[in-house]
Amino acid sequence: MPIQTSFNPKGRNELKHAISVAEYRVLRSKLLHFMRRDSNAGANGKYLIRSTYFDNFDNKILNEKKEGYLNRDKYRVRIYGKNDAVVNLERKSKRNNLTFKSKCEMTREEFEKMRIGDIHWMEKDQRALMRDLLFEIQNHQIKPKTVVDYEREAFMYPYGNVRVTFDIKVQSSLQNTDMFNKHLPMVDVLEPNLVILEVKYDEYLPDVIKYLLQLTDTRQEAYSKYQLSRMYG
């Protein structure tokens, strides 16, 4: 039984924008000269992320995001490349303007139990994050709600612990949560001419990165992949 857990106690700043494909290509060419690629990426510099997000019958998580709650939590189970080699339970928390992330390893079998409402085993689980999720399941009736796929290209810069990512081909399973099905039917939820840019950093964003990321075609509202995935229900 894996019990490894990680938590970032400091919190990070996070900016999200939608940019055009043309703008993405320009930014990408600039960043390649100053930032290093994510070592987990494939030969083309990208990797596939699949996440199952939790919510309840009243769309508590979705509505808190839409209404801009300053303090909110979002739970998801995440895998890479549509396989079960790495399965993580993650919680992304907003506290005022900072983002906190916690995660712990879990198994495919544990997720499948959650899908069918088998949660009794969670009561004695030693992972704090798993017990926190159990509390949310019992008190707010959250459960696996939808699967979201996207391709990510990531760049890192050591000063300020900066991470810049570009997400494309965002797709949703609507309300099918069979996330380990490699042939799970998915629908596109992001306009084909758009790319989601995310910039994450600790206390400060270095001037060189600020300069590189001067954008001319940004949509200033925050883009949530979970919110996009719920466009059709």
TrEMBL record:
Domain VTC, residue spans: 12-228
Top-level taxon of origin: Bacteria
Coiled coil location: none
Protein name: Polyphosphate polymerase domain-containing protein
Organism: Metabacillus rhizosphaerae
Lineage: Bacteria, Bacillati, Bacillota, Bacilli, Bacillales
